[in-house]
Amino acid sequence: MKKFLLIFAYWLPLTLSAQQHYWQQEVNNTIDVSLNDIEHTLDGFIKIQYTNHSPDTLRFIWFHLWPNAFKTDRTAFSEQMLQNGKTDFYFSDKEQKGYINRLDFRVNGEAAKMEDHPLFIDVIKLILPNILLPNQQVEITTPFHVKLPYNFSRGGHVGQSYQITQWFPKPAVYDSKGWHEMPYLQQGEFYNEFGSFDVRITVPKNYVVAATGELQNEDEKEWLLSKGQEIRTKEQVSRNKKPQTTNHKLQTTNYKQIFSDKETKTLQYKQNNIHDFAWFADKNFIVNHDTVQLISGKTIDAYSFYLPEENSPWKKSIQYIKEAIRFRSSLIAEYPFTTISAVEAKTGITGGMEYPTITSIPPSLSERKLEATIEHEIGHNWFYAVLANNEREHPWMDEGMNTFYDNKFSWQKYHAKVQLIEVKEKFVQQRMPDDVAHTALQTMVDINNDQPIETSSENFSEFNYGLIAYRKTAEWMKHLENYLGADVFANCMHEYYKRWQFKHPYPEDFKKVIEDVSGKNVDAAFALLNKKGMPEKEETKRKTKLAFVFNAKETDKYNYISLAPAIGYNMYDKFMIGAIVHNYNFPPNKFQFVIAPLYAATSKQLNGIGNISYSWYSDNKFQKIKIGLTAARFSTLSGTDSNSNNIFGGFYKIVPSIRFIFKNNNARSTFEKWIDFKAFIIGEKGFDYHLKISDSNYYPSTQKYSTRYLNQLTFNVEDYRVLYPYNAQFQVQQADQWYRLNFTTNYFFNYSKGGGMSVRLFAAKFGYFGEKTSAKNFATYSYQPKLTASIGSDDYTYSNYFIGRNEFDGFASQQIMMKDGGLKLRTDMFQNLQGRSDNWVAALNFNTTLPASIIPKQIPLKVFFDIGTYSEAWSSNPLTSKFLFVGGLQLSLIKNIINIYAPIFYSGDFRSQLKTLSSENTFAKKISFSIDLQNINLRRINRNIPF
Fold first, then answer.
1. 20 to 30 A Cα–Cα from 457, which one of 98, 667, 775, 776?
2. In three state form, how does the secondary structure of 898-934 look?
3. Is the dihedral of CA 68, 69, 70, 74 positive or negative?
4. Statement: residue 314 has pLDDT above 90
5. 387-539 CATH
6. Where are the domains of the chain?
């Protein structure tokens, strides 16, 4: 036993030492590829020298075939695009999709089998004919054919402009944590093995090519430089001429019409110590070139390739590239390669995209935004190209560290932070925060919608991916710098680069470097990576400050109370003027209020609306609990009494409420569930009518306010997903004599060419407390559900805006609201046609957009059809047919807030009755409209708004 223990004690340190020994695989690539710009295809052959530096024996190698991510609408990429609210790829035509095929893998000349990945169409397992022992090497070869997709995401083509990225078969990374096979994703970047690339690209001769690595063709280098000089000469001649008006649209169209040469050229590019290769080809590229000399004397070739647009900010691109290279070289380490390129390319994403020695930048950026984007993407040559961590699992180590240095660059040059958005309107610009990203981040933290920094790319919400992986990490890096001290932190970063250059560091490796160099324990700082909240808490007490309309500047110092003018209008008060006073800020206050007092010159009374609320946020069962109190007062009647005085009837309401929003544990989910309770306390003042003996006319007089109550409990589920969004709501209402159960669900069916069909289902059950009597039936008439169009008097909670709530003639009388059965035909004059029931009603409502071949997309015209039934229609002596229907045209404006309906066909019951009242039977009188302000929901307008 003692001998065994001694052997174990001797063997254990050796084992631990072996476990701590770092290794990584080596993949050297030789590729020949040719472009067919008619079929938009690539034909290639790849030879891979794969060296197994691991201590393990390999029997297979996972390969990424990422062009297959664009093969069907059921790939991981397609699913994520839908989750992020984009349907363009899902509904794309077959010719816009892409794939890779014609693979014939051979290992050391021997045919090798492939197995499909169980989950991902763009990953395969290559079964090695013979085992690959540690420190052995194999040669893997295969031809391949790629159908390039339209550029939905980073790579593909837009016409005959080519962005060739993630295009060849790649071995997945195998490291100490195992295999890292992964599908291609839009949100989530890459992890590849280091090695060398020797790539030969064959294209029609008049294409300008920008690629990773060093161009080996001297004649092509001279041609690129002469092409750039030719453009600069033309620009100089143009400046010396009299200015002329430029047709930008014509120019943009013209430069895409260059025919391809029949003759081809083959360009060779080489680069060592890289893990990916990208290239771009366009016949219209302008080329700029210069050299960058570093402090050591090393010279870098800098290229920019951009499209010919008038007054393009890309004319300064070389300057931006040079500044970025010098800045990063001075702060981290000298730029490790001898060439750097930036390319203007339509890449299907809003930002730039980095590859070793080259980056793609989207068009149409301002000078400031272009500079910031170039600086950021070139920075990835340190964080990604050299310090090549697993970006899919730990995006912060790449994007966040890089953003930290972006902030340093921007502060050094402009004494300002990099802004996420650009605002041209001066009024808004003056009220925007000095650091938009920080304010947005603080907002997400305050409403408990942020995520830990140490979250994998695919598990971030789309909103949080940029905010957390980039910006929150940058703030955490600043926190770490403050803790260590600037000089010590700089030494740590130098050592981190030196120790892990051209390797695959993990978070624990970065932490070890920090502790080794600084001599400090940083457990507390690194623990923050796995927590929600800000890296550094701000406990500044905010002062109250007045603002005009709004202000978002220095919200860490000031709690703004904003004041803005307000106007209102209805048929009775006429024009009202007043103000909106609120404290809605970013980040939001837990206690919020908005008050809009409005003075009506006609009714000479103070009206208005107001709301106060308090919110709690938690990580428990409920995401948010909100209590509130809403109040409103307006006129709903006007008249002249017997003394020729103007008199007014109206309402006030006070509504206490509480809402519970349930926690959704999936940050990427668009599903929302809430329950709320409201108690409506409503006071109403109507008219009494009296006969005046002197003229034998009846005149109104105002009644005293009568008060009623209504309790309402609502349970709502909704999914804001971009494909087939829906919501369902169950509601219980109760008052003194009655109760009512309402169920409403809406479902949207997307069409592949845009637009879609909305389907609404409504059902209601009405009942009485105690025995049903004719008196109760009369008293509860306006609360009973109905099928046909609901008017102002049906809005018994005063929750909808009406121009004229009690009008029976004129424009205002044609306003309806989408409530109950929703059959879009007004039957105010025909009580027996309304489908009103004190038992139950049910209805279906359809509306659909029209094909662009019939109606241009710019015209928001739809077709609607409504059908419903009600309890009394099934009695022995029904007043109407069992089913009533209405169909016609619908014009939807301002995100469906304003809708205009024109009934074209309807049930015979309606037709026969309308004939008896010719004044109501005209086409114009049957037109109705709704103003659905109460349905405004920011998340329905933009699903990424997190509140």
1. 98
2. EEEEEEEEECHHHHHHHCCCHHHCCHHHHCEEEECHH
3. positive
4. yes
5. 1.10.390.10
6. 387-539, 724-947
